[in-house]
Amino acid sequence: MEGSPIQLREWTPRQRVGLGSQTGLGGEADARAKREREHELAKRAAGGDGAAQTALVQLLMPRVRQITRAFLREGSDADDAAQLSLLAILRSVPSFRGDSSLAHWAKRIAVRTTMRHLERERRCRRPLVSEDGERLVSEPLERGGEGLPRELSEYLDELPDLQRDAIVLHHALGYSIAEIAETTGVSPNTVKGRLRLGSTTLRRRVRQEVLIGRRRDNERR
Fold it and tell me: Pick from 85, 89, 88, 53: which is nearest to 69 by CA?
């Protein structure tokens, strides 16, 4: 499993081995059938079925890459973190019991793995910036009007690491306060404080730059 690197390529629905069409199912029956297919796929992957392992990687890859690109700008760094996350998911798949969706279970592993990778990068003093090729964090916003003077990722990069991580986890990845606390090993109140301080700083800097931009526009007239 750890021998050859995982090929980070896009998948198509036809490549989803063990995940049949959901047509004709609805509501709770649809969700139950999907959960059963996911559990069966995970069970086969845990048993060493190569086709199931490949299907699992292809199924989860898009979301894993969204997570890693929410934290890392450099494509190579994000891909490294995605590969580490997918390997961690494959190693952990025997523990999947189907209590939650496969996507939610894998998301938790990917976030933990990515944050460990990110911490190693920070210790090496490599530049940290945020980018999301899947419209999570750094999609350029319109300048002027209700938009931002700069991309959101640039403002996030100027925050202290702990505040930035909390904001990305909460607003980009949809983590609750309790989930962030569990993931980062701090209390919910600490998480709330980081979110409050980070959000306040972001709003203040945006307001300052908007005002500066307006003054410059007025001076040109």
Answer: 85
